[in-house]
Amino acid sequence: MKRIDDEAGLAALRLASLAQGTASEPKGPPDRETLALAVRWTLQRLAEQAPGHALEVRVPPYGAVQAIEGPRHTRGTPPNVVETDPATWLALATGELAFSAALAAGRLQASGTRTDLSGVLPLV
Fold first, then answer.
1. Taking all residues of the chain, what is their mean pLDDT, rounded to a whole number?
2. Domain contains 18
3. Do residues 62 and 35 touch, judged by C-beta distance below 8 A?
4. Cβ pair 112, 55 in contact under 8 A
5. Cα(13)–Cα(11) distance, rounded to whole angstroms?
6. Is the sign of the CA dihedral 107, 113, 119, 121 positive or negative?
């Protein structure tokens, strides 16, 4: 996958965040292209800041990356997976939502022993 320029990714993240509004004043979802770019860029940042292959982070339908040092996964379903929706992922990536709060609220699914992303989030 082609690397997303940091300037373009950060601009998309800002637009996506503005479009969504705040918890007390929600506006609605950003356009699909902006949301996709913001999600892919933050996943790219995760892979760069916490390189490895022990955990797969999935944000369907926009992308997935492997991150976090540890045993390398090569076949079948990875033993460590975090999966969430785009809005939750962006809230985690920007620090608007804590990983533990998202997990407790059922806003993400985490399976495996290496799924706690608290040490690497927020990304921006």
1. 89
2. yes
3. yes
4. yes
5. 5
6. negative
Residue of higher predicted confidence among 70 and 107? 107
Cα dihedral 16, 21, 22, 28 sign: negative
In a domain? residue 72? yes
**pTM exceeds 0.90, yes or no:** no
> Mind listing the pLDDT tens digit for each residue in 7-59?
999 999 998 887 665 555 556 678 899 999 999 999 999 999 999 989 999 99
Strand order in the sheet with 55-59: 63-67, 55-59, 81-84, 108-111
Report yes or no on 123 lying in a domain: no
Contact at 8 Å (CB) between 114 and 55?
yes
Give the CATH number for residue 42.
3.30.1050.40
Region for 70 from its dihedrals, namely left if φ exceeds 0, alpha if ψ lies in -120 to 50, beta otherwise: left
